[in-house]
Amino acid sequence: MKRYESKLLTMLIVILLAFPMSLFAQSSDTQTIKGHFYRDGEAISVQIADGQIVKIQRLREGADESRVPEVYIAPGLVEVQINGYMGVDFSGEDLTLEGVRKATRELWKAGVTTYLPTLISQSHERLKNNFTVLGKALNDPEIGATIAGFHLEGPYMSPVKGFRGAHLKKYIRKPDWEEFMQYQEAARGGIKLVAIAPEIEGAIPFIRKSVESGVEVTLAHHNGSAEEIKAAADAGASMSNHLGNGCANMINRHHNPLWPQLADDRLTPSIIADGYHLTQEEVQTFYKVKGPDNMILVSDALDLAGLPPGEYERDGRILELTENVVKFPDQNVLAGAASPISKCVANMLEFTGCSLKDAIKMASTNPARHFDLENIGEISQGKRADLILFTMENGEMVIHKTIVAGEVVYSRD
User: Fold this and answer.
1) Of 63, 212, 287, 386, which is most buried, counting CB atoms within 10 Å of its CB?
2) In which element (H, E) is residue 47 found?
3) Is 284 within the bounds of a domain?
4) Cα-based angle 26, 30, 33 (whole degrees, multiple of 5)
5) CATH number (domain holding residue 183)
6) Least confident residue range of 36-50, 140-154, 209-223, 313-327
7) Residue 81 sits in which domain range?
8) How many domains does the chain have?
């Protein structure tokens, strides 16, 4: 009996000794950040454990608030159209996994915690090869949590000069489901968004198949009529890519692709609010028509974004990079953006007078919801801890810290 009691006592001691240590291990993985809630400016603390938000607390005025840093806390930005960054071209012939890592690290500095690397019109082999590289990034231990899938913008778009923008005509072709399935296989099923011109042959059946397979469809670089745009929405198209761009300079004032897309509530437009792709008045009008719940901000940044201004050659063509935008002088069109999505957030505040809450909604909550990314895009208990800490300085969004799945991936300090 005494031997049994001795063994029981020993077991109890071991359990008691182990129990506090397990508590300590749990608390050591817990971090708390403080700042001002982007929705209302009030002081809050956000507690993070195991990569998730476990508690959000309003801080009382007085002693607690005096220790709150003068930064906003918001969900990380979700970028669904970006062609490259800091010299890394997702459609380039030399794309590597390390290149994708480099671009992702740089995007963290701009507050992007989730994005869809975007491939534009290219040869069949180039698209297959690059989707193969990108597919590997989905499970990469460093950047996999940031890459939610991929966006294929082209080659299924209008071949007409102006509407095709800076896309090379030699790569434009009719939609081909078997070809697309090859891209999807190379991408390990990661293609989440495909762009298409609704007026080209085979577009409507392709849209139906895409939606049935779980891929969102966006209308882009097209000259669709009201009837063709309605047919595309009837088939399941749900977005309008960079509305107001990918459009010829000269269009009919009544019959053009803009009005039908603005009029159809089923189509959520993405817009490039960098101050150059659209005028301030266009942004204001789109915002008034669609509202903050049915718009998505994108950068459409090229690989040249972040590089020194000057002339660069891409695919045998000369592109002009300014401090604010990339131009294609040969066709007198814009080739893409040179600013990250954080610039668009700041401009929405200036152009429309919207609240910070609504600007962040269009750059984070809305795209997350649109692509059923249910664990991000909001600050609430149980969501993944994808957060940014930032200040607004001289009309610019200055990122101080970026957190992905509870891990600090960028700190300005």
Assistant:
1) 386
2) strand 43-49
3) yes
4) 170
5) 3.20.20.140
6) 313-327
7) 75-377
8) 1
DSSP letter assigned to residue 249:
S
The verdict on residue 23 lying in a domain is no
**pLDDT single digits (tens) 228-282:** 999 999 999 999 999 999 999 899 999 999 999 999 999 999 999 999 999 999 9
- Domain assignment present for 193: yes
Give backbone dihedrals phi and psi of 195, rounded to 5 degrees, phi first.
Answer: -100, 145
**Could you tell me where the beta strands, DSSP code E, fall in 197-324?**
216-219, 239-240, 268-271, 296-297, 310-314, 317-321
Residues 6+ apart with CB under 8 A from 284: 351, 352
Q: Return left, alpha or beta for 76; rule: phi > 0 is left, psi -120 to 50 is alpha, else beta.
A: beta
Return the bridge partners of 397, or none.
392
Tell me the two tokens of residue 82: 């970006």
Query: How many C-beta neighbours within 10 Å does residue 317 have?
Result: 14
Tell how far CA 370 is from the center of its chain: 11
Question: Which residues lie closer than 8 Å to 234 by C-beta, 6 or more apart?
Answer: none
The DSSP secondary structure of 172-207, one letter per residue, reads: -----HHHHHHHHHHTTT-EEEEEE-TTSTTHHHHH
- The answer to whether 220 and 242 have CB atoms below 8 angstroms apart is yes
Q: Which residues pair with 150 in a beta bridge?
A: 191
CB atoms near residue 202 (< 10 Å): 13
Could you read off the pLDDT of 128-164 as tens digits, one per residue?
A: 999 999 999 999 999 999 999 999 999 999 999 999 9
